[in-house]
Design goal:
mainly alpha; Formate dehydrogenase/DMSO reductase fold
């Protein structure tokens, strides 16, 4: 019989998942100060740019896109970490997903703001962003970008919030502080059979919806390039190429976030080597897919022998941008495949090293796509080289630091590992898996 004051959501061994919320170490504040220092530097650099214009950057004519648009494509790509990977694993009933889904879904929601912020910073006049809504041009892929990213952000936020509701109820009953805040967000959750049924149905619907939405987002981002006649942009391969690259960098970001959470919050019992092994295998598959698309794109460009395309092509392979291009090949393909192809090196440390390499390589890939083409336009132009200035570098570092700070802040208010899903896995997963395996084993079906 439940005594007065007992919680309807006992935690037992999962109390460690609440430790980051109920107790804060001094190192959290020190790291937060360092990150906010980079945020302040970025804000100062942006004010400097607003005061003196885009001339303070390395942008020029014809290279009117540079580091900012590279960051936009990069951040939007990383956003595929959460909803797409989480939704696919959930729909496939991959039981090992339970400890990693929330860590992935948070990345999606937070990083989308920095993708949008990169475009606003690139405008020079941030007030002009409203012109997209005041004077919409439905023939422009830029408007499609606005619509798809807005829908994606809304769907991703709902998909993050729904599985969070049972944990919010646990925090309401267990955390001991911010009770009103958690009570408001928990929406009266009591864990009844009816509530569980509706929640599972809502999560399942969102998991199905979010996959085509996520794919459409990076496809539309690729069309911003592919629907122009610029050399090496006007390509039908850009849609799937960008989607594969987005999932590739998304998986890498999940692995790095998991490793940091595991180390900082002592969650070795929840984020186990088997999780890193499975994600490392996925990362290996997408490294091979990425190489296939990259090879196909450059092979068809070479055999096409279009002079304007070849000028960009050779600037990447042997010219000014060759160090960046071959650095991309090494960090996106050679290093991760060399580490992840062997089970012995597909460890926590090995997958983290491979993931760091992939993130560096995927940023280089976006830069190599954006800048060389603009530096070699179809219309004859005096050679002008683009090199980012301290303003662009500061804002980029500030975006990265602010993202890490917001991610840390989330872990101080919400469990980064889904408590109720872990408990449900312990109670029901073995029986569900056994039943599912029996359903497709050869032989006559047993009566229910």
């Amino acid at each position: 019989m439940k005594k007065n004051g007992d919680s309807p959501h006992p935690l037992g061994p999962d109390e460690v998942l609440l430790q980051p919320i109920v107790a804060t170490r001094h190192s959290f504040y020190y790291l937060a100060l360092v990150l906010l220092g980079f945020t302040t530097l970025a804000f100062f650099a942006w004010l400097h740019q607003l005061r003196w214009g885009l001339g303070t950057t390395g942008l020029n004519v014809p290279t009117y896109w540079g580091m900012y648009i590279t960051n936009f494509v990069f951040f939007i790509g990383i956003s595929h970490a959460g909803t797409l990977i989480s939704a696919i694993l959930r729909l496939c009933h991959a039981e090992w997903r339970r400890s990693i889904t929330r860590a992935a879904e948070v990345i999606t929601v937070i990083v989308l703001f920095f993708g949008v912020g990169s475009v606003i910073v690139d405008l020079g006049r941030p007030d002009r962003i409203l012109n997209v809504l005041r004077h919409p041009n439905f023939y422009s892929p830029l408007l499609w970008d606005v619509c798809s990213i807005s829908i994606y952000l809304t769907a991703s936020t709902i998909y993050l919030y729904l599985p969070l509701i049972p944990d919010l109820a646990i925090l309401r009953d267990q955390a001991g502080k911010y009770t009103r805040f958690y009570r408001l967000l928990a929406l009266g959750w009591q864990g009844t059979e009816r509530q569980r049924r509706w929640l599972e149905r809502g999560i399942a619907i969102m998991a199905v919806l979010v996959i085509p939405i996520a794919i459409s987002v990076h496809t539309v981002v690729s069309w911003v390039f592919g629907m122009t006649v610029q050399p090496m942009w006007h390509s039908t391969i850009f849609g799937p190429y960008f989607v594969v690259g987005a999932i590739f960098s998304g998986i890498a970001s999940i692995i790095i976030a998991m490793a940091l959470i595991r180390r900082i919050y002592y969650l070795q019992d929840y984020l186990k080597p088997i999780h890193f092994n499975h994600l490392g295998t996925l990362l290996l598959v997408f490294a091979l897919l990425w190489f296939y698309f990259t090879f196909a794109e450059h092979l068809t460009t070479y055999y096409g022998q279009d002079p304007t395309h070849l000028e960009v092509f050779y600037s990447k392979l042997t010219g000014r941008y060759a160090p960046l291009f071959w650095g991309m090949v090494v960090t996106c393909f050679l290093i991760p495949v060399g580490i992840l192809a062997r089970r012995q090196t597909r460890t926590v440390t090995g997958t983290v090293i491979a993931s760091l390499s992939v993130l560096v390589g995927m940023w280089l890939e976006r830069f190599v796509i954006v800048v060389p083409t603009l530096a070699h336009p179809r219309v004859p132009w005096d050679k002008v080289f683009y090199s980012p200035t301290w303003v662009e570098i500061s804002i980029t570092l500030g975006f990265g630091a602010t993202f890490i700070f917001l991610y840390m802040l989330f872990t101080k208010f919400f469990p980064i590992v889904s408590i109720w899903e872990v408990r449900e896995g312990r109670e029901q997963a073995l029986a569900e898996v056994a039943e599912r395996v029996k359903s497709y084993l050869p032989g006559p079906e047993e009566p229910r």
